Amino acid sequence: MQNTRLRNLIQNMLLCATSGGLLVACGGGSDSAGNGTGPATTPQAPPAIASTACYAAWDAATAYNGGALVSAGGNNYVANWWTHNENPATNSGASGSGKPWTGKGACDATPTPTSTPTPTPTPTPTPTPIPTPTPTPTPTPTPTPTPNCSPYVAGTQYLAGRVVSNAGGFYRCDVAGWCSTGASAYEPGVGWAWNSAWTSVTASACPTPTPTPTPTPTPTPTPTPTPVPGLAKHALVGYWHNFTNPSGNTYPIAQVSNDWDVIVVSFGDNAGGGNVSFTLDPGAGSEAQFIADIKAKQAQGKKVVLSLGGQNGSVSVGSDAEATNFANSLYGIISKYGFDGIDLDLENGVAQGAAIQTYLPVAVKKLKTKVGASFYLSMAPEWVYVEGGFTSYGSIWGAYIPIINALRDELTILHPQYYNNGDIYTPFQAAPLRAGSADQLVGTAKMLIEGFTYGSNTFAGLRPDQVAFGVPSGRSSANSGFTTSADVSNALNCLTRLLNCGTIVPKQAYPGFRGVMTWSINWDKHDGYNFSVPAKAALNTLP
User: Fold this and answer.
1) Domain of life, per the record (predicted)?
2) Is residue 268 a part of any domain in this protein?
3) Most-buried pick from 1, 83, 160, 394 (CB within 10 A)?
């Protein structure tokens, strides 16, 4: 009897050891564990360990929209706006810091441990003193997947080189901006312009996907932005002076030449706290006449928008409250005068990390919600704020890129100013391109449509219909960057038809390229319409 009790005690102790050494949980030292008259006490599972789970790991090849959740280096992050190839571990900051990511705290990639199953005790002791431990199950290996292409999903952000399947064929993305628009015209193998964005390939071009334990759900496609109705396919955009300068006095909108497709009224005023005001110059006539003139131009298919910035300074938008003031005050002005939208010529105060990089997009989105789908938005930063990021990403260099990225769906036209800032470096040759040359106009448009690197990041190309180039109307209207009518025509034909190209040639023709912006309508009239007449004639010949 004593030997039997001793043997039972040893067996129970060994069973407890194989269950994690929890002697108390097995009832070690208690009467029931050693009297040999019944089964051992059932061990209890250890308590679960609370932790914050890590989101899906950040991937440099994936483009993330605002609100996306990722993890990197043991921390979770949320995207503040559209971002691609910007590592959250090195590109994060507090909300309003101007960084693309905001940290959400540490996370634990290790799942909550599962307690080891408790072996069922043997009612009758066996002579073997040490029980054989249950072998660890061998997991079934994940089968090696065969090469395949994911189906095309309209609105997904596709990088150049990505291969998809659609309509029974396989297609490689060549122009990221077009591949990602979601527009039916660019649906691979189906849309009328699909071969402007994609190249047909065979199934052998499909990548072999990396096995993943849990498949990632296909995101809901982002709706294709509604184009601004009535905008000319190839537009001549000009700034109209709401002030007197050496070009002459302000004159009524009704007297603006019909060659202009978009009339940008310059400028709204900074009323403080994000608020915008507008005071009409008496030379434009009465407010009633001004409103009637705008309606008459719109009836002719023209757009009339209010520009912010320029010589009257920048509007400060540095908080959510100021963003609300911005939207409310501008909505009042738009409703009163009948403007189609706004133009952002804001530059003072726009720099890397400035609050305006975060809150200006918030303000514009609030304004569009009030105005509706017909809202027109253009941007006219000096080129150093956009393509300048290729040369040096910091301070003002490339500072508009986060704003552009956050407003891609709202943007109608981006027409940077290629004057007053010297020659321009591009990815296409070691030497800079001469400001105002056809090569410069083609090269910078090529960057905006086909994409370029800035810092350690990549700017994904815009749709061609969102891009135009900005040049001075004559030698009196700018200090540098003057271009000839021939260079304007050659650049337009090179971009839309691959004709009359110089050293810089696009990857392909972009027949939807939007057109030309100039400073200014008033200087052009002063100089005898030396710019608008030949520029409009060139635009009228484009496909």
Assistant:
1) Bacteria
2) yes
3) 83
